[in-house]
Amino acid sequence: AGTYKITSGVDDLIHVFASLSQNITNIKLMLIGDGVIKSECTDLVNKYKLNDKVLFINSVPYSDLLTYQSLSKIVVCPDKDNLYSHFVIHVKYFDALL
Asked: Quick one: how many helices (H) and strands (E) in the chain?
């Protein structure tokens, strides 16, 4: 859940998910948000033929995020290494722990 931006790592997550889904049949990926590279991410899902395994959900209010996290077995924040990733911890990490 978040913004699809160049440093978000969502595209990398889709590449890894594509590899995992070859060996694990009952796996789903839920992506929540919007942003500048969302169309690139949807293109990757189409390229890997993952449309039945990846669910794109538009941005949701922060207050609803817990509902989506509770449906998940794993919560991933796949930031790419950048200047800010060393200084900012995602609130989503703490939310998921609650």
From this structure: 4, 3
pLDDT in tens, the chain (98 residues): 888 999 889 999 999 999 999 999 899 999 999 999 999 999 999 999 999 999 999 999 988 988 888 888 888 888 888 777 777 777 777 777 77
CA atoms of 11 and 56, how far apart (whole Å): 13
Cα 4 to Cα 49: distance, rounded to the nearest angstrom: 20
Q: Could you tell me the CA-to-CA distances from 72 to 15, 27, 35, 97 in Å, in that order? A: 19, 11, 22, 12
